[in-house]
Design goal:
Elements (H helix, E strand, L loop, with lengths): L1 H12 L19 H28 L4 H9 L5 H64 L2 H8 L4 H76 L4 H33 L12 E2 L7 E4 L2 E4 L6 E4 L2 E4 L5 E3 L4 E9 L3 E9 L2 E8 L1 E2 L6 E2 L4 E4 L10 E8 L2 E3 L5 E2 L1
Parallel strand pairs: 1-15
Antiparallel strand pairs: 2-5, 3-4, 5-13, 6-12, 7-8, 7-11, 8-9, 9-13, 10-12, 13-14
Helix pairs in contact: 1-6, 2-6, 4-6, 5-6
């Protein structure tokens, strides 16, 4: 008896009743969609909070140039130490810029995905709304006659109870659909919030790149000013010239020692036949270059004001842009000096070497074999340099030779 009363109450109290037009019981059992929507709502709320935290993290990780300059102040009297410390900061900032650019690409992809999810959710909402309108219209047209027909067409008391249960299931389904519609509307609002947070994160990352690039350029300018200040000091001009010549001597000695070590190693292992230069033209090592800022040969030194021999080509290029191996060969050095900055030296066989100076990052190590056109480093301004560029030198049998004899653009 209690069961019958419960069923009758359900029948009398149903707010929205429906057979889905032609759907019958097919849709009644689909009651898990709302649960899935609620799970999505929780997931999106967590993603929104995560996006806010990541934005705060971006802001807190930006380089404090003022603090760096204060820390470098004590090293200004020792130019070599000053340059080495500042170069460390330049490499760190260049790494931050590369990381931020990677995050920008990832976030742009995520925004496209979120926009797609938002459009899909809006489409779901529209479909749910249309289905609800059809059911309400059906209810309006049928009124209570549907339930009366179901109840009074029963062939037995048991059949009436079964039909009452069916009506109760329809009512529960309608409530589920209404809950799902409300949840979908809430989900759409969360998608919009997520999109706003992701766009804010993207803008923050782009601002971060601009800030880091400004910091990088500021420190490069600081180093340039310091180097030029030392070079332009009239009282210290002779000392500056001597220091410059000592730097060049140090470079030459370093490279000569490396050549000697390679030659001895080859002799010891009898590997001269393993690496041979076949006479081919070199790959242009700085594909992003904008100009040759200094040619090979005798030139007026830009800060010392005296004529000196320039042993390579200076290729002005954006910081972080690729440096390519000019030809196949063995990496015999991938190191740092206060004069050359981060540098690489490659043995191409038959006494032929190429040298790449002032890099912001090195991607190969001593002992690696590289192929023509391989990305081996990134353009920078480390060492005795006043701006982003690649200093590219070629040596043959212990002497510098004109790189133009081997290069093809």
């Amino acid at each position: 008896m209690k069961r019958w009363k419960k069923a009758l109450c359900a029948f009398l109290c149903i707010p929205i009743a429906a057979y889905l037009a032609g759907g019958g019981m097919a849709g009644v059992m689909d009651v898990n969609a709302s649960g899935l929507t609620n799970d999505l709502i929780k997931e999106k709320e967590q993603e929104i909070e995560s996006a806010r935290e990541l934005k705060k993290e971006l802001q807190s990780n930006l380089t404090d140039v003022k603090k760096i300059k204060e820390e470098l102040e004590a090293a200004k009297n020792d130019l070599a130490e000053y340059v080495a410390q500042l170069d460390g900061q330049l490499v760190t900032i260049q790494s931050k810029i590369a990381d931020l650019k990677g995050k920008i690409e990832e976030k742009e992809d995520e925004i496209v995905q979120t926009q797609g999810e938002l459009e899909s959710a809006i489409e779901d909402q529209n479909n749910q709304y249309e289905a609800m309108k059809k059911r309400i219209k059906f209810m309006y047209e049928k009124g209570d006659n549907l339930y009366m027909e179901l109840i009074f067409s029963s062939t037995s008391f048991s059949d009436m109870l079964n039909k009452a249960d069916y009506i109760e299931m329809l009512s529960a389904y309608d409530r589920k659909m209404l809950d799902q519609y409300v949840a979908t509307r809430e989900l759409i609002e969360l998608y919009k919030q997520q999109l706003e947070e992701e766009m804010a994160y993207l803008e923050e990352a782009k601002t971060g790149v601009e800030s880091e690039e400004a910091s990088l350029n500021s420190l490069i300018d600081e180093k340039k000013d310091r180097i030029e200040q030392v070079g332009n000091d009239i009282d210290a001009k002779e000392a500056a010239i001597a220091e410059y010549e000592a730097d060049i001597k140090e470079q030459n000695e370093t490279i000569a020692i490396l050549e000697k070590v390679v030659a001895e190693e080859k002799a010891r292992l009898a590997e001269e036949s393993r690496l041979k230069y076949d006479g081919g033209m070199f790959k242009w090592p700085a594909p992003s270059y904008t100009a040759i800022s200094s040619e090979y040969g005798n030139r007026m030194h830009p800060t010392l004001g005296v004529e000196r021999f320039h042993n390579g080509l200076d290729m002005a290029a954006p910081g972080g842009s690729p440096i390519l191996a000019a030809y196949d060969g063995n990496v015999v050095a991938a190191d740092y000096s206060s004069s050359m900055g981060n540098y690489i030296m490659i043995d191409h066989g038959d006494g032929l070497y190429t040298i790449y100076m002032h890099a912001s990052a090195l991607y190969v190590s001593k002992g690696n074999f590289v192929v023509k056109g391989q990305n081996i480093a990134a353009v920078g301004s480390t060492g005795r340099s006043t701006g982003n560029h690649l200093h590219f030198s070629v040596r043959l049998n212990g002497n510098y030779v004109n790189p133009w004899n081997y290069l093809s653009k």
